[in-house]
Specification:
The complex is a heterodimer of chains A (449) and B (207). Helix content of chain A is 51%, strand content 9%. By secondary structure, chain A is α/β, with parallel strands linked by helices. In chain A, the strands form 2 sheets. Chain A has a 6-stranded parallel sheet. A 3-stranded mixed sheet of chain A has the order 2-1-3. In chain A, helix 11 crosses helix 12, helix 12 packs across helix 13 and helix 18 runs parallel beside helix 19. Chain A is globular, with a radius of gyration of 23 Å. Chain B is α/β, with parallel strands linked by helices. Chain B has 2 domains: 73 residues, Orthogonal Bundle (Methyltransferase, Methionine Synthase (B12-binding Domains), Chain A, domain 1), CATH 1.10.1240.10; 119 residues, Cobalamin-binding domain (Rossmann fold, 3-Layer(aba) Sandwich), CATH 3.40.50.280. Chain B has a 5-stranded parallel sheet, with helices on both faces. In chain B, 51% of the residues are buried. The chains are: A alpha/beta (449), B alpha/beta (207). At the A-B interface, strand 2, helix 12 and helix 17 of A face helix 4 and helix 8 of B.
């Protein structure tokens, strides 16, 4: 008899999750129909190659290759970022074309562009997007700001859900300025319960709910088109390798709650509240990511890391503010058999010894400007590493330069397995011939003998 | 008493520094002297950042303390002393890119090292750089960009300087998350720096 989920070890859970990923289902829950027996074989080979690199139990047949990108597929297909955000068919076409033309071992799914009209409807304040604050040729970018005020930690710590629904959402979505939810305690008795609903009769509140309904309709329209992308690619033999997402609590607060400046000043003025808020947030991050991975059927969760990079914090600050709750998020994901794909933007040289402290074969460290020889030396026996090929080289270099760099990376990092080749950070523009050079070199030069 | 504010500020002791300024002003200390001490204090913060004793949060917080001190000093000062600046540097994040953390670090380090910085902000059109060079006669321009798409904006900005006949009048340095020697060549910049300290070094060499 099969073991119950809660009786399984994290090793067994990871194996079960990855096995499930190796045998994808269609939206009805039946076994996915591959385009051909060759496509099925290719899917299994690609996914197994990535799985072997992650688990470090055996060496893959060759170095797997994976790329991360922003709007590159749009530009490559001849569309602007604005077009793929507003025309979902174009998004679908571009994101599929990228994977089919370049044939990496895994892909990140089509979620980069997102539904532009939905953001218009809600008047999303956290970002500027093409045609809405940045030009149609550029991707979206975050608006730095203090979306949570310095004196709101207590409100957040006491009741994060209430803070999100009734304070944060109205602040980050212009159309939800008057959004409100009733407090559940007030409807437990019929006596007076009806009074709770008065706010919903007020026109501005009704307008907020109307905006939500419209956004919901738009989301369905979007998913109806773009949602098919991952399944179609799977049927063609290409596994999705990213889902989630999760984040380090420090980045969650520092990116879009308190902002970079806000959190850094809080480290001095109210360190205990900052630490407490991150603690409160930790189990919520895990729960969200686990739920997200279940919906997508992809147990590899993207964890994009920002403010713990070299230079951003001292080692002491990193150990006090960044790592403890971040590690707990990672351990929480690992306990559910999820593989955190930790994407460390910038340099992570000074953190390597610290992040070593995780169980073996459970996490991927995707490194941007970190010294890869050092990363292999410090992390090589405990974790899969990847990344580092500079997007600048892909943008302006020659195929020969890219080939040389790729070979050097393989020579430095591939020994013994536990390595995935790829570009160090999100690329928006690249010469297609350079991308081919990177991917093809990995496939030829990266074969383990 | 002299030097105490330098120490409090450079050691990031916010309540103590503010209390000290309040007491000193009450006791009749010349606010110009206090202003001098804050400059010295910020210069030490910059040195500590350069030697990796301080990191970004420390820099950001020192700026916050300074803001508090300046607020107390300003009513007592006739006008801000701006004498003795080493030279003018124009800084901005190039068109299409709104990232400012890296750019702000460079502005901070140039400022505490004695340069007058004209910070044009983010998403700065090429023409704005050209106009500012013309208006100020500045001979050093810093272009910042985080996105890979910024490569082209940097290139276009430098071309715009060329077209305006200004390229031989001002040196251009570039910097940002994904800038390398290949990108420097691609954009036509004179130099690139991998951090804010290198920007200061470059400015020193050029002014």
């Amino acid at each position: 008899m099969e073991k119950k989920w809660e009786e399984m070890s994290s090793d067994e859970k990871q194996e079960a999750q990855l096995q499930k990923w190796l045998s994808p289902k269609d939206p009805e829950g039946n076994d996915l129909q591959f385009q051909s027996p060759q496509a099925e074989k290719a899917f299994k080979e690609r996914a197994t190659r990535l799985k072997d690199a992650i688990q470090m139990k055996k060496r893959p047949d060759r170095v797997p290759v994976f790329t991360i990108y922003g709007f590159f597929p749009a530009l490559y297909a001849g569309f602007t970022p604005q077009e793929v955000m507003y025309d979902y068919d174009k998004c679908n076409i571009a994101w599929k074309k990228y994977v089919l033309d370049f044939a990496p071992d895994g892909h990140i799914g089509p979620w980069v562009p997102g539904p532009g009209k939905l953001f218009d409807i809600l008047d999303y304040k956290l970002y500027k997007w093409p045609g809405h604050g940045v030009s149609p040729e550029y991707g979206y970018q975050c608006n730095e700001g203090e979306y949570m005020k310095a004196d709101e930690y207590d409100a957040f710590i006491d009741d994060p859900s209430n803070f999100y629904s009734n304070i944060y959402l109205p602040r980050i979505f212009g159309a939800l300025e008057h959004f409100t939810t009733p407090h559940i305690a007030d409807v437990l008795e019929m006596y007076g319960a009806g009074l709770n609903f008065i706010p919903y009769g007020v026109p501005p509140v009704q307008a907020a709910y109307k905006a939500l309904l419209e956004a919901g309709n738009e989301a369905l329209k979007y998913i109806g088109v773009v949602g098919a992308c991952n399944n179609e690619l799977a049927a063609a033999g290409f596994p999705t390798f990213w889902d989630g997402p999760a984040k380090a609590p420090f980045d969650m607060i520092g990116d879009t709650l308190r902002g970079t400046k806000g959190i850094m000043v809080d480290m001095y003025r109210q360190p205990d509240k900052l630490l407490k808020a991150m603690e409160v947030m930790t189990p919520l991050v895990v729960k969200n990511a686990v739920a997200g991975a279940k919906v997508g059927g992809v147990p590899i969760v993207a964890v994009v890391m920002h403010k713990g990079a070299d230079g951003f914090l001292s080692d002491e600050q990193y150990k006090k503010f960044y790592w403890p709750t971040f590690r707990r998020v990672l351990m929480g994901l690992i306990a559910e058999g999820i593989v955190p794909f930790c994407f460390a933007e910038g340099g992570y040289n000074s953190r390597l010894e610290i992040i070593r402290d995780l169980p073996k074969g459970k996490v991927i460290w995707w490194l941007d400007r970190t010294d890869m020889a050092k990363a292999k030396e410090v992390l090589g026996d405990v974790a899969c590493i990847g990344g580092n090929l500079p997007p600048g080289l892909l943008a302006v270099g020659t195929p020969q330069q890219v080939k040389d760099y790729t070979k050097k990376l393989i020579d430095t990092c591939a020994k013994g397995g536990g390595y995935i080749l790829g570009n160090g950070t999100v690329m928006e523009q690249a010469k297609p011939e350079n991308l081919h050079a990177m991917i093809d070199t990995a496939k030829e030069y990266g074969v383990y003998k | 008493m002299s030097g105490e504010l330098v120490k409090l500020l450079s050691d990031l002791k916010e309540p103590e520094a503010l209390a000290f300024v309040e007491k000193a002003l009450g006791g009749g200390v010349d606010p110009v002297d206090l202003l001098g001490e804050t400059k010295e204090g910020m210069n030490i913060v910059g040195q500590r950042f350069a030697s990796q004793e301080y990191f970004i949060p420390d820099l950001v917080f020192s700026g916050e303390i300074l803001k508090g001190i300046n607020k107390m000093l300003e009513p007592h000062l006739k006008k801000r002393e701006e004498a003795g600046r080493l030279g003018k540097v124009i800084m901005g994040t190039v068109a299409g890119d709104i990232h400012d953390i890296g750019k702000d670090l460079v502005v901070f380090m140039l400022d505490v090292n004695g340069y007058e910085v004209m910070d044009l902000g983010v998403d700065v059109p090429a023409q704005k750089f050209v106009d500012t060079i013309k208006d100020t006669g500045s001979t050093v321009v810093g272009l910042s960009g985080f996105l890979t798409l910024a490569y082209d904006s940097m290139k276009q900005t430098i071309e715009a300087m060329n077209d305006a006949g200004l390229r031989d009048k001002a040196k251009v340095m570039i910097g940002g998350g994904q800038i390398t020697e290949e990108i420097r060549k691609y954009t036509g910049a004179d130099a690139y720096g991998k951090d804010a300290m290198e920007a200061v070094k470059l400015a020193k060499g050029w002014i």
